[in-house]
Amino acid sequence: MQKIKALIPNAFTLANLFFGILGIFHAFDRNWDGVIMMLSFSLIMDVFDGLAARVLGVAGDLGKQLDSLADVVSFGVLPSIVLFFLVREQCEPLSIYQQFFPLACLILAMATAYRLGKFNIDTRQSDYFFGLPSPAQAIASVGLAFWANEISTFFRDLGINPAAFYLSFVAIMSIAMLSELRLPAFKSWKYPSARPVLGLTIILGLALFIYFYVESGNNFREGLKSLSPALLLYLLFGALIFRPKTPVQTA
User: Fold this and answer.
1) Alpha-carbon gap, residue 184 to 191, rounded angstroms
2) What is the Cα–Cα distance from 8 to 88, expressed in whole angstroms?
3) How far is CA 143 from CA 1, 10, 42, 119, in A?
4) N or C: which terminal CB in the chain sees fewer CB atoms within 10 Å?
5) Are residues 214 and 182 in contact, defined by beta-carbon separation less than 8 angstroms?
6) CA gyration radius for the chain?
């Protein structure tokens, strides 16, 4: 019976991997709606595998390693491929030296793998994160696909190739994931400084979604433009506000 219980969280983890692979297929077709849908399913499975392991009391080293392997694909490879195509579109037709620009986006996948490897052996990250969590990076990165037209227009009007923006974004996300920056998780609620970070991120994220949704004539796809700004606000608020040294004292 215990062995059967142990299979349940691993099944959620493998489902995370499955949806991540499907997201990659959609990315090759430039089907950003499909990508964000598969990423959403991967995120849900990523939540449920840990939850199931705790509820069933079957958390173990295999599940931990399997979870990180799935996350590398869903939250590392998938967003890096999305950014690869966003950069490639700005460089076409590719000159000899421009052919290497899109490949720089794969740094994001490598940084994600390195971060997840660190996470598995870092005993400090029980209540909060050291560095930007890979799911947050993936949401912010994939969310840029819904800004592609605006980004292209804005930077080309300035005489700048939009590829420079995307590559700068890759660098910022990679550095943020590998940094020692402390950022709150939902279980960080016991820290007073975590509450405004999480609260402001959720409230402003919802407000942005509603604004883009209504402004576009109730177009759900336009509402997804809120994803990247919301996650960047989380990173900004966390860096400026979150101080985890003084948890609430309970009697």
Assistant:
1) 9
2) 40
3) 42, 28, 15, 24
4) C
5) no
6) 19
* Residue 129 phi, psi (nearest 5): -100, 145
- Average pLDDT for 20-33: 96
| Amino acid code (one letter) for 137 | Q
pLDDT band at 6 (very low <50, low <70, confident <90, very high): confident
Tokens of 51: 């939850």
Distance CA 216, CA 225 (A): 11
The number of helix segments (H) and strand segments (E) in the chain equals 11, 2
Contact 192, 248 (CB under 8 A): yes
Report the predicted TM-score, pTM, of the whole model to 2 decimal places.
0.91
For 88, the token pair is 């490639």
Beta bridge partners of 184: 128
Vertex 71: Cα angle to 220 and 118 (nearest 5): 130
Across the strands, what pairs with 129? Answer: 183
The residue type at 42: S
**Helix or strand holding residue 42 (H, E):** helix 32-56
2-180 maps to CATH 1.20.120.1760: yes
